[in-house]
TrEMBL record:
It holds the Pfam family PAP2. The keyword Ribosomal protein does not apply. This is Undecaprenyl-diphosphatase. It is a multi-pass membrane protein.
Amino acid sequence: MTWLTVGTDAVLGVFAVMFALLWLRHRLRAFLAGAGVVVAYAISEVVKLVVREERPCRAAPSIAECPAPGDWSFPSNHSVIAGASAMAIWALHRTYGWIAAVCAVAAAASRVVVGVHYVHDVMAGLALGALVSWGIAVLLEKRLPVRQRREEVEAPTVVLQRLR
């Protein structure tokens, strides 16, 4: 079971490698997408201060070491980072996005399996991270100059005459 505790943090490294690879092609967009992950994390920290839910490892034994008291359970920060990273990577590269999505779900599930989060903690974390990251991606698409945007393939426009 040690691989589960190590794997939880290793997945975050996978996201870092993907962002580094995407940096080579998308420079500014990759940087801003990564900044979106930081924003999602900051929001999750504020939510934790408001909700203040104890972790399951305080009431039952867990595989992983239980974080110190005051490190609240809801939402899971690992899941927020995973969800935000997966959505940001998806916005930049669909193939990497599929890999990132699988990694995000695996990272979230591992937090429950090792006993440091409840299922609703990780589900909320994935959703929060993905929504924040998606919102930032939408804003970037509208705010960046056309040359910085993703190449768009336009379908040919067909104009039909109105029948009378």
